[in-house]
Write a structure and sequence with these properties.
By secondary structure, the chain is of the alpha+beta class. Helices cover 45% and strands 28% of the residues. The two termini are 21 Å apart.
C-alpha cells in the first residue's frame, strides 16, 4: 500500500477531499519526523511508538564483495507497534 492509497481510503471514509487528506497526512508525517529529529518519542496509542536509537560505530561486511567496511556511529529511527496492532496482524494473517 502506498501513501496515495491511504489518502484515497481516508478521503472516502472521512468525506474530506483528497487534497485535504493529503495535507493532513503530510502534516502528521512532518510532525513525527521533526519530533524524531529532536530525539523525542512519538506515541500513537493503539498504533505504536516512534523513537530514535543510537548505534555505536562498528565493522561490517559488504555482502556483495565480502569487503570489511566501517559503519560510523549514527542515530536510526525505530518503530515499535502497539500490542493491539501486533495481535490484529497476527489474527488476520493466521486465518
Amino acid at each position: 500500500m502506498t501513501k496515495q492509497n491511504i489518502v484515497n481510503i481516508v478521503s472516502e471514509a472521512t468525506g474530506l477531499t483528497k487534497v485535504e487528506t493529503e495535507a493532513v497526512m503530510n502534516g502528521v508525517m512532518s510532525t513525527i519526523i521533526e519530533s524524531l529529529g529532536r530525539n523525542e518519542r512519538v506515541e500513537l496509542r493503539g498504533f505504536g511508538t516512534f523513537g530514535v536509537k543510537h548505534r555505536m560505530p562498528k565493522k561490517a561486511r559488504n555482502p556483495g564483495t565480502g569487503e570489511t567496511i566501517f559503519l560510523p556511529e549514527r542515530n536510526v529511527p525505530i518503530f515499535k507497534p502497539a500490542k493491539y496492532m501486533r495481535s490484529h496482524v497476527n489474527n488476520k494473517l493466521s486465518k
